[in-house]
């Protein structure tokens, strides 16, 4: 866990203006996105005393390694950027937006005879126009409610539409003018589709022309002294402008443009780019460069354009590129951009209107980027190398542990005992090297014996591969423990065999007993050049063999944080394997042998009795108390269970679900990626 004070910005560095902020972990993954009316005030809340924070907030700020922000002009822009980046980055701590497993969209069913405006989630369907995503369904309904007075498109369900057509009476929206009531023939299908297309055009950002037309109609109505019509048009325009704010369209007429801004001083320059597509800000990027020579702003822009569009796989050139100053000469650059796009590109400096206002926002972000760059302390060491050096110093190793292997034992009350081996090289997970084990030497729960067995098996394989040559299978189930393998150190491609490469450090999940077991296993094999340590969960204590007291690493230590990530990844990998084995055993339980007993009644039995063991001890009369279970079925269940081998998974009495021993740990460095399950006993993990 990181100390938030280690990356806390100084209050003077944070702008007192609206914006969107992103917390990142040490691997630069975005773990949280938020918006604020005042970035300075909001971010200050995260860096107070940890004891005063909500547990989830505390977990987020201690997982994060940096925070950055984007300044915008209004809260509306901040809202749109928050929605867009939550969808793009899928931050693990933004769970409040995931209650329905997907983001709601405003959808227009153009594939129907009478298109309908509605809220939709899940997979997108062909022939349906989607706009969004939004954070909440009520935000969509607010927008639609404003637009219906101008575009009275159908919003009712198919059932309501048919009932209205049958009765000849429209719904309430038809009476108050917020639906054109195609159900009763007030408009035909063609006119209603035209309304829906205008609605879609407006939502897509093509707003400028439509608003100007309404304004002219309003002025003409006023000149003709049709004041009621003029007032209605005025209200329509107001509703559309308010809807535009809610929809966060920053540029009208569905503009596609890149806006480039530069902030500079005598020595350095910061460049920021906003990518606007369909009138909305879809992305942002930037960089800082040294000014090694006397260079103008126009020349900086030219270099930025080359950086942005020069690569063969670079970004597509939009129709407009807005810059703070034009390159000199302009013609070659513009011709080059046109060739990259395949059609004319407008390269210009915005002078007024919405584009100028948005350019000012980009310029503020460039200025903030330059300020932050200058306030950061320069360092020659990466975070990972610093962590490895801290571990080496704390454990008194001869050098940095470039390869670390971590082992964890997982079981449920002594059943399905398994172990995991995860590998980190240069501080990064090496998933192709992961292995998992079934405990074979004994039955029941004994973490110390299990750890001894796993370490022995892994390093017996290491010694055997080190000494032998020839071809052999990489699956352990083809080789009995203690047998000499017929394999070589390298495969036919010249790469080391999977168990042939030793670690510099073995980490076990546990305290003194587990560490002693691992060390004893290595000593029995005559291996004395591999260090061992353990990380106990309770106080995050680091234990080494033969010591009565743990090694103390500072809570802000990068080395401790790396050990925690390695340990948590081993725990996640082990419990994933253990759960898969347990789920298979549950699916193949004794109740499967009862003829005619389906999943629903199986779950009802488990919920009622709590476990298969308790069900086995129940009488026929007690089994009959379960809803849906008759006497004949109860007698069959009792007879089958009496013949079955005792045993079965523990089950939650309230929900009928298997009781988990622990929740899987997902760390900032290792989100819960899927892994392959099943035999063989030891098998590599699979990258997502």
Automatic annotation (TrEMBL):
It comes from Streptomyces longwoodensis. One of its GO terms (cellular component) is excinuclease repair complex. PANTHER family: UVRABC SYSTEM PROTEIN C, UVRC/OXIDOREDUCTASE. This is UvrABC system protein C. Pfam families: GIY-YIG, HHH_5, UVR, UvrC_RNaseH, UvrC_RNaseH_dom. Residues 208-243 form the UVR domain. It comes from the Bacteria. Transmembrane segments: none annotated.
